Amino acid sequence: MLHGFPDNCRIYEELAxxxxxxxxxxxxxxxxGFGLSDKPPGFLYSFEQQLADLKAVVDDLGxxxxxxxxxxxxxxxxxxxxxxxxxxVSSLCLLNCYYASSAALRFPELIELCSDPALKKLALAxxxxxxxxxxxxxxxQGLFEEGAPxxxxxxxxxxxxxxxxxxxxxxxxxxxxxxxxxxxxxANLEYNNRRVAALREFRAPVRLIWGxxxxxxxxxxxxxxxxxxxxATLKALDANHWLQIDVPHLVAxxxxxxx
Length: 259
Prior knowledge:
alpha/beta
């Protein structure tokens, strides 16, 4: 199970037990720089590094074939791992994530700011100032909640918000990893754009499970991604971006349905 940023593997805390109870072995880990993982000073965090993290976990545990479960910016690592090592992947499960450029794809404002090379100094100044970073995080979180029903907003604020905030306030925190990953986002999109044709050649089943209230990775992103695989199915749920927190029982049910 692969997380995006600025969160960590705790986003799967309610979903993982449901899958375990159904007899599945569930492995969730923090990418380097996030959550409880090591945070080496001066390290160059990147999407290529996260792909290597995933390969290291699979190799170290001696598991396989696996089902990479990708959320948000975990999408590129999961999909590129599947393309690079098809013999190690029995299927893919994609939850409100992204891979390549799409007419429907829109990054959150926080990511747009931190991924723009022309605004690198501004982004660094804001994200290294606790007061300014806190305001920007609250601003972005408010935009994620727009359009979601009250009960989903409550779960966002009570469950997800503390996970994200803790990522930044703990010492050492995930600020450096977040900034480095965001600055790599555009280059990673361009790299993935060059691999889009290979998605059609991936023969294992691809299950997309999508929260339809997501204001950024919308249903249009899901439809576009599903159209690029030869064996993709799409299940839409009444949930927001973090659907594994909003409706974990429904996500587990959709994941466990026969392919």
